[in-house]
Amino acid sequence: ATSVKSYEYVILGGGNAAGYAARQFVEKHGLSGHKLAVISRESVAPYERPALSKAYLTANPPTRLPAFHTCVAGGGAPQTPDWYAKNGIDLLLSTEIVDCDLNSKCLTAKDGSKYGYGKLLIATGSDALHLDELGMQGAHLGGIHYLREIAEADKLYEAMKACAGKHAVVVGGGYIGLECTAALVINGVRVTMVFPEPHVMARLFTPEIAAHYERIYAQKGVNFIKGTVVDSFADENGSGQVKYVRLKNGPVLEADLVVVGVGAKPRTTLLEGALAMEARGIKVDGHLRTSHADVFGAGDVITFPLKMYGNRMARVEHVGHARQSAMHAVDVMMGATTEPYDYLPFFYSRVFHLSWKFWGDTPAQAKTIVVGEMNPKLVAVWIDQDGHVVGTFIESGTEHDENKLKELARTRPKANVARLEEAAAANDVDGFLN
Ligand code: FAD
Questions:
Q1: How many domains in the chain?
Q2: Pocket residues for ligand 1 (CB within 6 Å)?
Q3: pLDDT level of residue 1 (50, 70, 90 thresholds)
Q4: The CATH number of the domain where 254 resides is what?
Q5: Region 137-164: what's the mean pLDDT?
Q6: Nearest to 126 by CA among 257, 235, 258, 261
């Protein structure tokens, strides 16, 4: 029989949550002596995934590992494989787990090797939604790119360099679409973005905020086709490489390269049937405990109670949550806290010279007030039906501005709507912020 290598703690996954969890075990709890294993399908140690659609594609020279291993964004030094070795953590790379037996507490890898655990942290993240899985015609063709892991970023980078002066179609108007479009433009590729919504970032941006970003993209030559979706892809003369993108309402676009960013799906397959699920994610309680004893979850894969919004259940695909939930889960696993996880939703993106941040909530009925015209700032607030500020947004803010807006989203004070509207009408960003 295959022998089982056993650990007190196992982190399943090697992404953002895994990297920050490993650091928490070492730095806060002093863990050493090969009691912890990090098991990842990827061939490299955990890294800051958001870099893949930013400096990895756009910097000159492009950023490469080891520069952005976790936890550099948290202000630390990059955790290279040496860091894991030095701290007595077994980093098992290129190791895909294909079976999780929670009753015998045993994980089985693709090559048959087996790993036992005392406590397990599930941090398998999410994967890009692939159009071929949805049965779209031609979606298997070469030249159609997705961006989730580093191997995909390498392929996209090469393809982009080979397409300078040519034409790309970007499918999806969310942040992946916007960041990849910016990277393509910076690399000299002409881009058409196609998405069904009336404007970019439709789930977060108000029409006014979106208009400011779209104007800057249009100035850089980006063409938008809104309110429609891709129907199919086709090649030319059986080349196997995408050449045509047919849209639902008829027109056909020519493309030398396609990037698809149409959403993500949590990687839960291994645990279906074994753990309680909610909203497509692994359900955890306020202490990040799953429905099975000694099994915890963090990051994109979990559906968790948002304490500050009356424990409304949510799944969040943002790196701030991956980092904080991972660190909190480790504290719970080590018996170091009885406090529930209390996350203030936070999301950011960077494109061209721009950089925006958002905190809080955007209820459907919220009133929004926007001020500034991106020269250089733009600030927005979301005010709920009871008149409280619940969401805040800033483009190109100073640290002081950002701290203030973060605090407002956290404390949700009553808004002085008349004063805010007055400042907005006068385009007075500083007055608005004060
Ligand atoms: P991941 O980082 O996805 O890690 C999951 C890991 O588990 C991977 O290493 C995967 O290979 C591994 N794994 C999965 N299944 C198995 C298995 N069976 N066996 C072994 N290993 C397995 N968020 C922001 O807030 N701002 C941004 O600007 C931003 N930019 C982004 C840009 C890109 C291109 C992408 C893809 C995401 C971006 N995000 C951003 C989202 C952010 O990166 C994620 O929220 C975060 O990475 C989630 O961390 P995680 O650890 O839960 O999952």
A1: 3
A2: 13-18, 39-42, 49-50, 52-53, 96-97, 123-126, 147-148, 176, 267, 270, 299-301, 317-320, 322, 347-349
A3: low
A4: 3.50.50.60
A5: 97
A6: 261
